[in-house]
Structure formats: structure tokens, C-alpha cells
């Protein structure tokens, strides 16, 4: 018997690239009155299967009643276009999308039943293949949050996410990784930690993400210093010669379902513990890590708002990681205020350089955090005795070997370059005197983004004051950096409208 | 302090209607490089607030990099266009959408916590105002399904759904309604039940939906017989003169959030009990009903698959309804096979007419079901003693008063007309002899839709055989009705590929 919902072959349409961005959603636009919509009985928002030259993509159908799209054409969103690998004018076949068996698993979870591991395998396979609509993804995420994933389920989800992507193998039992759960602007310890660990002979094949909602990701910052868009063979070559790399993870398919799920989690502004654990660990396991140090900043405007929540997360993360032979160490850090002075790709790169170069103007908090994390990694890896890791890391930093290693890694990735500086700057002054009692990390991140970060690498903020400092009215609290005066004005109006950015009392 | 995410007024763009159908999703298309995207820092799939001449609509942003949209233009999906009530070229202001407080309630429910009634009020108010994206809607629906709504929550949700729409009042304590939970093709009892009850002097202001996934809704069928697109004053006039009406509910804003939620539930193919109850009851309460008879067909290919599930649904529905002073009576009916002979708007209308006209060719099962339901309504309303309602209903049908009342209602709605007949028909013959053991209702519905129902009112099926009948190979099991030979072929190829449509054994 043929498949229920594919009664016969579809007619052909001509592919048209619309340069249409719907973030990562694959959408096809067809005339309501085109022969395929009529003969297939396709209606708006139907899920359709697009076939082109042996490649299949499932997309959401939008329809139009207007002549700017011909009856014989089908317009594609960028996600559909790139997944199909189509050429303009290529023949597309469009038919009803097949029913996904894994949606029965999602519906099962939506009735409050826990899923066995093959259920997660089916779901994650279909997600990674781009077969889920945003509605399906949101329903799955919500189902896994409303009845929170138990340890078995988190383990199943993590394993499924690892299995659908590439998996790196480094021919060594000791591969170090480092991850911060995020939420703290300026917390750019990774380049420093990688340089220290690699300088001490450890293998640290670090792949990082670009910013999605923050003003900078590690990949954005590193891109102002060197090339980060490395292929898998390039990553191998750099790691084999230098022991570490600082690459963008996007060019490598490590846990690709994670990237798809994260997009929806951000739209929902949720980050359920089980999914967070699977997200972090699947990337690390796929990258071939054996030991991971996790930075968990805790503070009222950080991602982790309570110490108890952070401890529970650490405990569950450790249990799940152990199931995959991955050893973890969690560092609970202060999440009350931003780290370093710069916020934004290039401004954070300058902070990193100052620490590595042992400059007098290096931000001491960034340096201390990097040493703590590098020390924890050295102890976790058995390279330093308990409570001696930070000192060993400090030696590597202070004797210049970390800076040498950083330069060597950048040279291997394509050459070290100087980060750009913004064309325009403007100070934001205190509107009263007193003691600085609180800084809102979320509002600070938003301000940096309004100034143009991370799209404009030189844009962002430098923060001049730290908690507990005495402030005099009129003194600059921060400086806005931007490419154009319009962006300065825009950020400035936000800064002035948001007194809660800095709380000054007494 | 100004709102966190609306730092300043937006620049203006010129409205362009793209005749772009994304079902009910409000989408705005802007150039990635337009001044508003740049100055507001808007990225693809951001939620934005569109303001036009005093009206505000929240929409999802899509972006393009192509000259067919000017830098000064913004293209709107049909949902955005109609909600804004814009004119071509109107000035649009576009800025970041405000943060919705109700999304905190959704996130709360997504952590497994039950919601108080003001949480549902906030959520439903924002849903009805069109402020939720499909992702938000799916997450909410999934959260209410994964941890199923308890009776208090169903009551809160129902009340919130009633409150955001119009509410009708009929100046009488006895207003009868009738509802079928669906899933059984051809089960078109409503026009007959309304005619019988109105002919006996009851008030039956019936509003019905059009088909969404089925081959015909009551409104589609009635539209082949008379005008159904009635305004609220028209509905009042018809009900005041004739005691009943058979109108389309879409022109009246009864429980408008329900229509928005149903679209996502269909995409997910779920119909969680709590949401089903809130959906049905909110429509009835908003329509001013005091007494409702519910038809619950049970069968392996109907919506309700088990008798136990149907009983639990009936019990919960009754408890929630009672909280709103609404009296219910549930009729569990046979959901094993389609009802009547026709499937599709006009073909079902012919069946209805034959029953009302007491034709010898009237399908007896449709007649019996209508009498059972009308009888239950008469007993529930206290107009008939227990076990005498069906006989009273039969009198009204057999003495011609129901048919007279039906004609009067249609005349008041704009005149009775003859349903159309399809241009083409073709029989589907049995491929073996034996006894008809099973009919797949879902496949039958799909076949009728492939033939063109409900968009083409005359299209659909006539089913010639019923369960238990002896079938001879080559005998016609059903006839396909369509407007064009292509559609006949299309439906025929599906019928031939799906032996499971009819199960013939022995």
C-alpha cells in the first residue's frame, strides 16, 4: 500500500530564491491558484515535502494571490534554499509531507508519559533533519519542561543529540573543554583558559558559538582577533600542532539538533534544566571531550538566579555526564556584575589581550576568573594537585607562555590581528552621587546590543565602575561605542530611560 | 520609567498588501537593510509592534534582501493586514513588541505549576488580542496537555475564553444548543435537530463552524441551502421570529481565543480533554445557551476511541458546565461508520432535506440520530417526560412541522435554495466479495477532501454500503463526486491505493 498521504507524484515548479529570512524556518511560497496547490489540495501552513535533484526538504507552505510570483514558480526562504542546495530555476516537486512517526512520541510525552530512549532517538533524528515546524518544536520543548525530564530522559536526549551529528575523536584519553552557562556580559574567560591549558600541554579543541541573544559570543570575540570559520580538517591541524583551538562551532555539525531547539527556547525565553544539560553535554561529548569545567555564574540578573538552583543543576549535570564517561567540575561564580571592562566582540577581545599580555590595565576580575577556571581544569585533569591548579595556571600566564600559545593558535588559525575600534564613543554619566549597589546585567546587555553589538564588532560598552565604588554625580559610569552617531543616540536614549541599569544609593 | 523595550518612537514605513496567506499568522516583511530594522536592531523572527492610525498589531518579522520590496515599504500577511485595517501606502510604525506579562504565566505553567484564574485571564486576553506567536501558542497548549488541566483550571480557562468575546443574551431562561465532538463524516444532525426543536417552540440560536480538517462543517452544508453569513442583528431577528437559526459562527466573536488555539491544536493533531471542554463550553456559554445536548460518537476511527474516555470526558464536561449554570446531557453514539449517505457540503444537505421532507430515500440512521438528540434536548429542557422526547421529536418530524420550520428559518436567513450537484461522478467498486466488516472514517474523510470538499460544495462522496452488508465483487461501494475529471482521478488513485478504506471479509 502506498503512503497514506502521498497519493501520487507532484507537478513541477521552478525554484526562486527570495532572499527571505525567517531565521531558520524552511518556508515555501506558492500561488494559491497554482496547479500544485490545487491538485494536491494544499492549504496555507500545510507541511510539504520539497524534492529537488535527489534532495528532500520539509517546509511550511505559505500562499500568495499576487502576480509577482508566477503560477509556475515557488519562492523559498533562505533556510529552505540552503538545505535544498537549489539553483535558480531548478525543478521542484512539492507534495504533502509524510506523517512523522516521531510526532506520536511527542504527543505521547504531551499526555504526561515519560519516553523511552528510542522515542528521543526518533524525535531528535527528525528535528536534526529539519522535519519539525516551529509549532512541533515548541510543543516538544514545552512537554519536556512542564513535566521535567528525569535523569534517564536527559541521558536519552543527550545521547540522541550526540548521535545525529558529527563526533570528533582526538586519539587521547584527556581532552579538556570548558563551558559557561552564560548570562553574564563580558565573561570572556575562554580564550585565556584555552591558552593557559594548551601552553601546559593539554588538548583543548574549543569550539564556541556566536551570540544569539547576548552582545557577544566567544566566536564573535575571537573573530576580531583571528579567523574562526574553520573546517574540521583545519581544526584538527590547529589542535594537532598547538594543542588547542578557538574556532566557531557552526561550521562543524556537532549536535545539530541543539541549534534548532535553542532557537525556539530563546523565543520562549525558557531554558529548562533538562534541556540545558542535554544541550551543553551533547556539544561537549560530540566534540570528543573527556573532562569539562563548567562555569555557573549566580546572581539576580544572571541566568542562574539562586545558589540552590545552581547546585541542583550541577548535580544533575554531573550524573548525566558520568553516564557518558565525561568527568565534570562545576565552578560557582559571582554573577552580580559584568566581568572585565568591555562588553561587545572587540571590546572583550581587548580585555582578553590585556590579561594575556599582563598589561597593568588588565581587568583583575577577568584574570582571576580565568585562573580559577584554568586551575579547576588542571586539577580535574590530574595535572595539578588539589588547590594548586590556580597557581600553576598563574605561572603559565605570568611567565608569558599562555600569551605565546595564544599567538601561536591565532597564527595557526590564519594570523593574529588587532581588534577594531569604534568610530564614535560617548559617556553615560551618573545622575546622582552615592555608592554603586547594583548593576542590571540584562539591561547592560541590551544597551550593548542597541549600540550595534555583535553585528558591528567594535560596538558595545566599556563599564568604568564596579559594585561598592563611590560615585560622584556627573562621573562617567560607562562609555558607549558605536559605528554611527545614530546608534550612539539610540543607545543613549535607552540608557537615560533606564535608571535601573545602575542602582546608586546613600 | 519608559518601557524597557521601547526606547523611542519608530520610523515610518509604507504598508504594502502582499496577499500573503500564512493562515492566521500576522507577519510583516521588511528589508533587512531598511532604516527601521537597523535603528531598532530588529532581526528575523523578532516579535514587533505595528502601529497604524491608532491600531496596534503584534506580528512576527520576516526579512528579505531583495529589491522587489522597497526600503521604505513593509509587506503584510493577510492576517496582519486585516487586523490592522490598513490601506495600501498607509504609514506604519514598527518597533520591538512589548514584553507580555502573560508569557510569565505560560512559563510558570511550563514549570509544572498550576495556574490561578487570573493567569488564564491574562493569557487568554493576550491570545485573543493576537499577541502570541505560533511558538507561544504551541508551548501553552503543550503545557496544558502534558500536565492535564484540572477541573479548576478548565473552569478558569473556559471563563476567560467567554469573557474575551461577545456574549449573547436571549431574554429567556431556556436556550438550547447542541454540539457534536466530531470525527464522524456525514453526521449532519444539527439542521434537523434545530428544525424540530424550533418547531416545538424552543429557542435554538445555533451557530456552527466551517470545516477545518473535515470534508464539511454544518456551516458549509447550510451554505448550500441558504445564507449563513449573518451579522449579530440578523441572527437576533431570525431567532426572534423563528425560534432558531442555522448561522455561521465566524461572523460573530464568540470565544475568539478558541479559534486561535484550535488552529495550533490541529497542526499538532492533539485535542487534550481540558482544552476540548473549554473550547466547546466557552462557545456555548458565549452563545447564551442554558441547556446543551452533546453528541459523543465513539469508535476506533472516530475522535473518541474508547467508551471509558468518552465517559470521563462527559463527566468532566458536566462538572465544568454546571459551574457556569449550564445544564448538559451527553449522548454516546455509534462512531463505527459514517452517517447518512453523503459526505461533503451539498451531499450532506441532500440527506438533511430527505429526512426533513420524509422522503422514502431518507437515510434512516441520520433520521434516528437526529430524533435521539432532539428527544434528549426536549427531555433536558423539561419539555418531554423521561423517555418520551424522541417520540415527541418524531411527531414534529412526521407531521411536517419540522420541515415547515426549516423552510421558515432558511427564508428568514435569505431564502432556501437547492444544493448544487457535481459535474462528474465515478463509482469505486469492491475488489472482493464478502461481508463489510469495517470502514475507516478518517480515510473516508480524506478521500472526500481529495475530491474537492469542502471548498467545492458539490464535491464529496456517497457511500452505498453499511457495516454487515454482503458485498459482491465489482459492486459500487461508493461514488466520488467532483467538479473536474482531474479531481476524480486524484481521489480515485487514493481510493485504489487504500484497501483499508473498506474491510471486506469472509
From TrEMBL, chains A, B:
<dbReference type="InterPro" id="IPR036320">
    <property type="entry name" value="Glycosyl_Trfase_fam3_N_dom_sf"/>
</dbReference>
<dbReference type="GO" id="GO:0006213">
    <property type="term" value="P:pyrimidine nucleoside metabolic process"/>
</dbReference>
<feature type="domain" description="Pyrimidine nucleoside phosphorylase C-terminal">
    <location>
        <begin position="435"/>
        <end position="502"/>
    </location>
</feature>
<dbReference type="GO" id="GO:0006206">
    <property type="term" value="P:pyrimidine nucleobase metabolic process"/>
</dbReference>
<dbReference type="InterPro" id="IPR036566">
    <property type="entry name" value="PYNP-like_C_sf"/>
</dbReference>
<dbReference type="InterPro" id="IPR000312">
    <property type="entry name" value="Glycosyl_Trfase_fam3"/>
</dbReference>
<dbReference type="InterPro" id="IPR013102">
    <property type="entry name" value="PYNP_C"/>
</dbReference>
<dbReference type="InterPro" id="IPR028579">
    <property type="entry name" value="Thym_Pase_Put"/>
</dbReference>
<dbReference type="Pfam" id="PF07831">
    <property type="entry name" value="PYNP_C"/>
</dbReference>
<dbReference type="InterPro" id="IPR017459">
    <property type="entry name" value="Glycosyl_Trfase_fam3_N_dom"/>
</dbReference>
<protein>
    <recommendedName>
        <fullName>Putative thymidine phosphorylase</fullName>
        <ecNumber>2.4.2.4</ecNumber>
    </recommendedName>
</protein>
<dbReference type="GO" id="GO:0005829">
    <property type="term" value="C:cytosol"/>
</dbReference>
<dbReference type="InterPro" id="IPR035902">
    <property type="entry name" value="Nuc_phospho_transferase"/>
</dbReference>
<dbReference type="InterPro" id="IPR000053">
    <property type="entry name" value="Thymidine/pyrmidine_PPase"/>
</dbReference>
<dbReference type="GO" id="GO:0009032">
    <property type="term" value="F:thymidine phosphorylase activity"/>
</dbReference>
<keyword id="KW-0328">Glycosyltransferase</keyword>
<keyword id="KW-0808">Transferase</keyword>
<comment type="similarity">
    <text>Belongs to the thymidine/pyrimidine-nucleoside phosphorylase family. Type 2 subfamily.</text>
</comment>
<dbReference type="InterPro" id="IPR017872">
    <property type="entry name" value="Pyrmidine_PPase_CS"/>
</dbReference>
<dbReference type="GO" id="GO:0004645">
    <property type="term" value="F:1,4-alpha-oligoglucan phosphorylase activity"/>
</dbReference>
<dbReference type="InterPro" id="IPR013466">
    <property type="entry name" value="Thymidine/AMP_Pase"/>
</dbReference>
<dbReference type="Pfam" id="PF00591">
    <property type="entry name" value="Glycos_transf_3"/>
</dbReference>
<dbReference type="Pfam" id="PF02885">
    <property type="entry name" value="Glycos_trans_3N"/>
</dbReference>
Amino acid at each position: 500500500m502506498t503512503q497514506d498521504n502521498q497519493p501520487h507524484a507532484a507537478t513541477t515548479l521552478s525554484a526562486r530564491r527570495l532572499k527571505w529570512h525567517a531565521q531558520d524556518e524552511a518556508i515555501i511560497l506558492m500561488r494559491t491558484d497554482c496547479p500544485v496547490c490545487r491538485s494536491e489540495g494544499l492549504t496555507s501552513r500545510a507541511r510539504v515535502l520539497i524534492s529537488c535533484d535527489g534532495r528532500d526538504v520539509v517546509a511550511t507552505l505559505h500562499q500568495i494571490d499576487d502576480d509577482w510570483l508566477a503560477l509556475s514558480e515557488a519562492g523559498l526562504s533562505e533556510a529552505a534554499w540552503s538545505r535544498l542546495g537549489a539553483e535558480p530555476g531548478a525543478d521542484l516537486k512539492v507534495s504533502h509531507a509524510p506523517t512523522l512517526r516521531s510526532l506520536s512520541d511527542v504527543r505521547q510525552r504531551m499526555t504526561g508519559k515519560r519516553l523511552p530512549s528510542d522515542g528521543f532517538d526518533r524525535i531528535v533524528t527528525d528535528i536534526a533533519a529539519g522535519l519539525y515546524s516551529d509549532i512541533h518544536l515548541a510543543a516538544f520543548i514545552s512537554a519536556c519542561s512542564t513535566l521535567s525530564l528525569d535523569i534517564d530522559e536527559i541521558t536519552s536526549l543527550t545521547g540522541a543529540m550526540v548521535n545525529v551529528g558529527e563526533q570528533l575523536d582526538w586519539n587521547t584519553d584527556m581532552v579538556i573543554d570548558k563551558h559557561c552557562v552564560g548570562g553574564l556580559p563580558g565573561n570572556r574567560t575562554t580564550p585565556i583558559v584555552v591558552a593557559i591549558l594548551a601552553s601546559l600541554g593539554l588538548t583543548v579543541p574549543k569550539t564556541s558559538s556566536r551570540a544569539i541573544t547576548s552582545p557577544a559570543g566567544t566566536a564573535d570575540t575571537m573573530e576580531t582577533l583571528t579567523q574562526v570559520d574553520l573546517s574540521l580538517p583545519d581544526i584538527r591541524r590547529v589542535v594537532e600542532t598547538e594543542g588547542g583551538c578557538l574556532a566557531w562551532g557552526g561550521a562543524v555539525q556537532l549536535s545539530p539538533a541543539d541549534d534548532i531547539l535553542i532557537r525556539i527556547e530563546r523565543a520562549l525565553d525558557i531554558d529548562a534544566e533538562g534541556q540545558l544539560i542535554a544541550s551543553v553535554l551533547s556539544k561537549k561529548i560530540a566534540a570528543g571531550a573527556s573532562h569539562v569545567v563548567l562555569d555557573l555564574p549566580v546572581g539576580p540578573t544572571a541566568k542562574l538566579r539562586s545558589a540552590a538552583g545552581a547546585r541542583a543543576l550541577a548535580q544533575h549535570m554531573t550524573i548525566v555526564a558520568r553516564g557518558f564517561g565525561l568527568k565534570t567540575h562545576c565552578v560557582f561564580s559571582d554573577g552580580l556584575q559584568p566581568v572585565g571592562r568591555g562588553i561587545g566582540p572587540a571590546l572583550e577581545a581587548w580585555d582578553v589581550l590585556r590579561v594575556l599580555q599582563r598589561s597593568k590595565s588588565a581587568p583583575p576580575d577577568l584574570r582571576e576568573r580565568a585562573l580559577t577556571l584554568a586551575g579547576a581544569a588542571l586539577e580535574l585533569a590530574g595535572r595539578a594537585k588539589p588547590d594548586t591548579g590556580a597557581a600553576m595556571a598563574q605561572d603559565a600566564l605570568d611567565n608569558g607562555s599562555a600569551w605565546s600559545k595564544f599567538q601561536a593558535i591565532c597564527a595557526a588559525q590564519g594570523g593574529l590581528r588587532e581588534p577594531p575600534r569604534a568610530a564614535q564613543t560617548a559617556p553615560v554619566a551618573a545622575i546622582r552621587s552615592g555608592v554603586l549597589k547594583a548593576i542590571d546585567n540584562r539591561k547592560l546587555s541590551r544597551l550593548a546590543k542597541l549600540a550595534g553589538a555583535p553585528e558591528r564588532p567594535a560596538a558595545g560598552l566599556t563599564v568604568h565602575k564596579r559594585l561598592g565604588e563611590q560615585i560622584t554625580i556627573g562621573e562617567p559610569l560607562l562609555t558607549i561605542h558605536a559605528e554611527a552617531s545614530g546608534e550612539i543616540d539610540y543607545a543613549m536614549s535607552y540608557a537615560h530611560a533606564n535608571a535601573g541599569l545602575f542602582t546608586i544609593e546613600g
